[in-house]
Structure to design on (546 residues):
């Protein structure tokens, strides 16, 4: 490729100016180190501009508006779908359904595909490291149809126990749903291998890629899964944009999730017939502006090159793990530095509650998350109530990591005094 | 900012909590958690006549929640139940004497919520403390 790609180690600092929100300082003149990108990433100017110009120049409700603006809005919406399809290498844009977020995408699969296919006594396999959004939708399904849920265990260093997976696969589960990357530990799971084994066992497979898509190149055809969900707002796009990718033959056989306008072919008082995919799963007026923003975000990431993004975050994570290892009293969870540790780091500081750590860090304009990270079963498995979590994105740099380490030392000084 | 939040009285109560423990046969007791951070506070109260004769708290969590609960036990020792019921959110914030951000308000109010729930005998709502 002839495009100029910044060297991985400079990705953070060199593109920081693309993100207006990162230009702010606190009252003490300290720059913002935003280390909560796993919760929601910040947005580059090109995304903000795309949303803004959509509303300034092209906004109208899509489909069936027989006037130019509506046609243009419809075109922008469908172009965004094409961007999504290209970004994850989907066979067709029809396989890409716009949702609000990963949570809605997983609920869609659990309620639509799940209720049509999962029966009393069937087994649903999830993992001990899943986010609540890949646990609770399956619990709702299991309760409704009488299915059973079992979780793949994890090792002490936060990796999935593939022997435990094999034992569960021997019971021929109906569905296997797992996180691409752990939102709490940063573990990059061997997705292709898990999918291969699960498919061999006859399961339908969903990948919760809420934390995978922001950190790694994603190729749904190479992965071989049946469904993959991700959130736009974690890949530099507006809040309110999310994606469910599904294999076309599966989607075409699925009943609707939500009913309403836009998802029907014909409505009579007593019954209706459904539109083709993806419209069947997009009831009501969609978040067109957010979808346009998502398209712009994916173009921006493609320009950066997801392989470079991944290398940048791996290098930064390696550096951060080295820095934190130098700090006495700091315990880091998850795998050691390497290809299977993406830019999410969970840690505790001896004798200081994770929320107090986060409050001291906030005083230094270092934004991190503290709590159970919507992973209560994982926290129970690790034997902690909560952790403090720092997470990276394309704009994160070594200075952010240094400031994190210094702020942790400051917390230790305050609490040791 | 963090120097403001973690002033000496907060750190002192957090490191050396007052009235920490449990009462064997409490007149009133209640325990609750702050789902946000997993803070836990239990309050045991021995009531004699119409007054707090003895109060102990137990639990674990962040410095704000534990210091706030510790301070509260000192505030209410010997007070009448009417006085305890009249303690407001503002009273707690005055006692803490540091700026509490919205994100940490539940931590600061957990002790009061638990104590009032014990005294009233029914769980109290955060918003109506």
């Amino acid at each position: 490729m002839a495009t100029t790609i910044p060297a991985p180690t400079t990705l953070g600092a060199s593109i920081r100016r693309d993100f207006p929100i990162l230009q702010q300082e606190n009252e003490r003149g300290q720059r913002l180190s935003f280390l909560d990108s796993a919760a929601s990433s910040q947005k580059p100017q090109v995304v903000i501009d795309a949303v803004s110009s959509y509303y300034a120049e092209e906004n109208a409700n899509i489909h069936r508006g027989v006037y130019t603006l509506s046609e243009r809005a419809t075109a922008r919406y469908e172009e965004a779908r094409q961007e999504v399809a290209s970004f994850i290498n989907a066979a067709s844009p029809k396989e890409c359904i716009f949702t609000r977020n990963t949570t809605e995408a997983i609920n869609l699969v659990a309620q639509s595909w799940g209720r049509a296919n999962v029966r009393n006594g069937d087994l649903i396999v999830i993992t001990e490291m899943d986010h609540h959004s890949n646990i609770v939708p399956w619990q709702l399904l299991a309760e409704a149809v009488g299915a059973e849920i079992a979780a793949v265990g994890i090792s002490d260093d936060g990796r999935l126990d593939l022997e435990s997976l094999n034992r569960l696969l021997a019971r021929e589960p109906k569905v296997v749903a797992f996180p691409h990357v752990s939102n709490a530990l940063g573990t990059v799971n061997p997705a292709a291998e898990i999918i291969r084994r699960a498919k061999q066992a006859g399961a339908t497979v969903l990948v919760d890629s809420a934390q995978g898509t922001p950190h790694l190149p994603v190729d749904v055809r190479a992965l071989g899964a049946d469904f993959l969900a991700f959130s736009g707002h974690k890949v530099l796009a507006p809040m309110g944009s999310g994606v469910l990718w599904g294999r076309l033959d599966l989607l075409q056989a699925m009943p609707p999730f939500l009913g309403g306008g836009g998802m029907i072919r014909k409505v009579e008082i007593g019954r209706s017939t459904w539109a083709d995919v993806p419209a069947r799963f997009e009831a009501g007026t969609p978040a067109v502006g957010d979808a346009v923003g998502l398209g712009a975000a994916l173009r921006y990431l493609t320009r950066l090159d997801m392989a470079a993004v991944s290398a940048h975050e791996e290098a930064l994570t390696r550096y951060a793990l080295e820095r934190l290892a130098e700090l006495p009293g700091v315990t880091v969870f998850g795998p050691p530095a390497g290809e299977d540790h993406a830019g999410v780091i969970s840690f505790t500081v001896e004798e200081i509650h994770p929320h107090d750590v986060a409050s001291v860090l906030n005083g230094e304009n270092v934004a991190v998350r503290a709590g159970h990270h919507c992973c209560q079963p994982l926290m129970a498995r690790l034997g902690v109530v909560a952790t403090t979590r720092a997470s990276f994105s394309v704009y994160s740099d070594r200075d952010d990591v240094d400031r994190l380490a210094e702020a942790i030392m400051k917390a230790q000084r305050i609490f040791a005094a | 900012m963090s120097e403001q939040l973690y002033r000496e009285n907060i750190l002192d109560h957090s490191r050396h909590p007052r009235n920490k423990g449990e009462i064997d046969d409490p007149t009133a007791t209640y325990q609750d958690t702050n789902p946000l951070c997993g803070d836990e506070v239990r309050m045991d109260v021995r009531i004699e006549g119409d007054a707090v004769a003895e109060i102990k708290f137990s639990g674990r969590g962040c410095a704000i929640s534990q210091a706030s609960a510790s301070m509260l036990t000192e505030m209410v020792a010997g007070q009448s139940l009417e006085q305890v019921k009249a303690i407001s959110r503002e009273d707690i914030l005055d006692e803490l004497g540091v700026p509490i951000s919205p994100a940490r308000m539940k931590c600061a109010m957990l002790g009061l919520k638990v104590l009032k729930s014990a005294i009233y005998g029914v769980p109290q709502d955060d918003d109506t403390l």
